[in-house]
Amino acid sequence: ATFNKRKKGLVKKIHELSVLCGIEACAVIYSPFNSNPEVWPSNPEVKNVVAKFEMLTKLEQEKKMVSHESFIRQNISKTTENNKKKMKDNAERTMKEAMFQLLSGKGEKLKLTDINREDLCKYIDQYLKELYHHKNKSINQSYIQYGESSEATSIMAPTSMK
């Protein structure tokens, strides 16, 4: 029962893929219950798709192929990168939380090692640099806007009165 449900779902997905993407697709499904493989859509259509694939050069065939091993490696790589990003985000969130606990006078609850203190100091330094950068950027933008508006009014003002 499970095999038939999964097979039906797989065939439906392949059909959707071929319709939505405008591609030719086929499936050869080996069943543990039947010695002959089942094909979708039909035997002549499957033979046509396979023949077109076999007419491609080896390089073109390999370019369009993904082996199970390379697929798994790609997934592992993506998952590893995602994991590293999440760990970095968590570490940053922890540092930010510790920084604000210290600023609010609740720092005695923190149990920091020398390494944690060093990391926290680096984080605070970086945080302050970013704050100063944004402050200076904001001041410069407001100065430019003020300067532009006063310049515009001086251009529009009459230069001589008679």
From TrEMBL:
<feature type="domain" description="MADS-box">
    <location>
        <begin position="1"/>
        <end position="31"/>
    </location>
</feature>
<dbReference type="InterPro" id="IPR002100">
    <property type="entry name" value="TF_MADSbox"/>
</dbReference>
<dbReference type="GO" id="GO:0046983">
    <property type="term" value="F:protein dimerization activity"/>
</dbReference>
<dbReference type="GO" id="GO:0000981">
    <property type="term" value="F:DNA-binding transcription factor activity, RNA polymerase II-specific"/>
</dbReference>
<dbReference type="InterPro" id="IPR033897">
    <property type="entry name" value="SRF-like_MADS-box"/>
</dbReference>
<keyword id="KW-0238">DNA-binding</keyword>
<dbReference type="Pfam" id="PF00319">
    <property type="entry name" value="SRF-TF"/>
</dbReference>
<keyword id="KW-0805">Transcription regulation</keyword>
<keyword id="KW-0539">Nucleus</keyword>
<dbReference type="GO" id="GO:0005634">
    <property type="term" value="C:nucleus"/>
</dbReference>
<dbReference type="GO" id="GO:0045944">
    <property type="term" value="P:positive regulation of transcription by RNA polymerase II"/>
</dbReference>
<keyword id="KW-0804">Transcription</keyword>
<protein>
    <submittedName>
        <fullName>Agamous-like MADS-box protein AGL45</fullName>
    </submittedName>
</protein>
<dbReference type="InterPro" id="IPR036879">
    <property type="entry name" value="TF_MADSbox_sf"/>
</dbReference>
<dbReference type="GO" id="GO:0000978">
    <property type="term" value="F:RNA polymerase II cis-regulatory region sequence-specific DNA binding"/>
</dbReference>
